[in-house]
Amino acid sequence: MTKGKIVKALSGFYYVEVESGQIYQCRGRGLFRKQKITPLVGDRVEIDITDNGHGFVTGISERKNELVRPPIANIDQAIIVTSAREPDFNALLLDRFLVLNEAKRIEPIIVITKMDLVKPDVKKEMETFQQMYENIGYSVVLLSFKDKEQVQQMIPYIRGKASVIAGQSGVGKSSLLNALKPGLDLKVGNISETLGRGKHTTRHVEFISLHQGYVADTPGFSSLDFREIEADELPECFPEMVERQNDCKFRGCKHFKEPKCAVKDAVDSGEIPDFRYNHYLQFLDEIQSRKPRY
């Protein structure tokens, strides 16, 4: 019995990297199908290696987290890539990604790319957003792919971690990985000018070994809805609200219509940015308007 980690899943095969660094092409046991268990990239597994050098996945360790889209497990952090231009920076979309990662207890790192394409007023605006998100407690990196030193500042975030790289199409996810690992040569999607968004260029889930860590190059998240988050869980996905919830008059305060709410006071005083609170209310309404599932 050999232990390893699934680093790639493709066409029913699981590619398992063992401690020596060798990768074995494996099939899952039929038992998994009966139990409706699907091995995922990121799973820590046990394998039986056959005489021909292939193997079978025989056991899967308990997961600390898992994502549905992309299907991946045991993620330490999400590198959320957004761009300053083409497509333009979208704080609402960024906050969606942040909430989804907070709900899964996955630490987000925010990367704003294409800083070399913006005019001074937009650069200043991006720096303001950087400051606001850093005040909340997030790590934020402003990046130009033309500046090698700026790209290198990503390495400490990646080292020793299992990361998923996420963001809408066209923001530079593949470009970032190509810049961090020259020779990787991932396909980069061109922006579709008519749609204003990129085309999906990534077809399968795979961990790329990068600076003593792993990064999953994944398809753009095809779903950013909050079907797995309940209304009373949403405040926990905003760190600036978690920080103040004990100062609210009512326990379980949803920071909406309740009196003597510390979060609303912080919005009024400018400690919490208006746009973050407005996005929270928008997400809350979306969750509360959701049709019940049976």
UniProtKB/TrEMBL annotation:
<feature type="binding site">
    <location>
        <position position="255"/>
    </location>
    <ligand>
        <name>Zn(2+)</name>
    </ligand>
</feature>
<feature type="binding site">
    <location>
        <begin position="113"/>
        <end position="116"/>
    </location>
    <ligand>
        <name>GTP</name>
    </ligand>
</feature>
<keyword id="KW-0342">GTP-binding</keyword>
<dbReference type="GO" id="GO:0005737">
    <property type="term" value="C:cytoplasm"/>
</dbReference>
<feature type="binding site">
    <location>
        <begin position="167"/>
        <end position="175"/>
    </location>
    <ligand>
        <name>GTP</name>
    </ligand>
</feature>
<feature type="binding site">
    <location>
        <position position="261"/>
    </location>
    <ligand>
        <name>Zn(2+)</name>
    </ligand>
</feature>
<keyword id="KW-0690">Ribosome biogenesis</keyword>
<dbReference type="InterPro" id="IPR010914">
    <property type="entry name" value="RsgA_GTPase_dom"/>
</dbReference>
<keyword id="KW-0694">RNA-binding</keyword>
<feature type="domain" description="EngC GTPase">
    <location>
        <begin position="73"/>
        <end position="222"/>
    </location>
</feature>
<dbReference type="Pfam" id="PF16745">
    <property type="entry name" value="RsgA_N"/>
</dbReference>
<protein>
    <recommendedName>
        <fullName>Small ribosomal subunit biogenesis GTPase RsgA</fullName>
        <ecNumber>3.6.1.-</ecNumber>
    </recommendedName>
</protein>
<keyword id="KW-0963">Cytoplasm</keyword>
<dbReference type="GO" id="GO:0019843">
    <property type="term" value="F:rRNA binding"/>
</dbReference>
<comment type="subunit">
    <text>Monomer. Associates with 30S ribosomal subunit, binds 16S rRNA.</text>
</comment>
<keyword id="KW-0479">Metal-binding</keyword>
<keyword id="KW-0699">rRNA-binding</keyword>
<feature type="binding site">
    <location>
        <position position="253"/>
    </location>
    <ligand>
        <name>Zn(2+)</name>
    </ligand>
</feature>
<feature type="binding site">
    <location>
        <position position="248"/>
    </location>
    <ligand>
        <name>Zn(2+)</name>
    </ligand>
</feature>
<dbReference type="GO" id="GO:0003924">
    <property type="term" value="F:GTPase activity"/>
</dbReference>
<dbReference type="InterPro" id="IPR004881">
    <property type="entry name" value="Ribosome_biogen_GTPase_RsgA"/>
</dbReference>
<keyword id="KW-0378">Hydrolase</keyword>
<dbReference type="InterPro" id="IPR012340">
    <property type="entry name" value="NA-bd_OB-fold"/>
</dbReference>
<dbReference type="InterPro" id="IPR030378">
    <property type="entry name" value="G_CP_dom"/>
</dbReference>
<feature type="domain" description="CP-type G">
    <location>
        <begin position="64"/>
        <end position="224"/>
    </location>
</feature>
<dbReference type="Pfam" id="PF03193">
    <property type="entry name" value="RsgA_GTPase"/>
</dbReference>
<dbReference type="GO" id="GO:0005525">
    <property type="term" value="F:GTP binding"/>
</dbReference>
<comment type="similarity">
    <text>Belongs to the TRAFAC class YlqF/YawG GTPase family. RsgA subfamily.</text>
</comment>
<dbReference type="InterPro" id="IPR031944">
    <property type="entry name" value="RsgA_N"/>
</dbReference>
<keyword id="KW-0547">Nucleotide-binding</keyword>
<keyword id="KW-0862">Zinc</keyword>
<comment type="function">
    <text>One of several proteins that assist in the late maturation steps of the functional core of the 30S ribosomal subunit. Helps release RbfA from mature subunits. May play a role in the assembly of ribosomal proteins into the subunit. Circularly permuted GTPase that catalyzes slow GTP hydrolysis, GTPase activity is stimulated by the 30S ribosomal subunit.</text>
</comment>
<dbReference type="GO" id="GO:0046872">
    <property type="term" value="F:metal ion binding"/>
</dbReference>
<dbReference type="InterPro" id="IPR027417">
    <property type="entry name" value="P-loop_NTPase"/>
</dbReference>
<dbReference type="GO" id="GO:0042274">
    <property type="term" value="P:ribosomal small subunit biogenesis"/>
</dbReference>
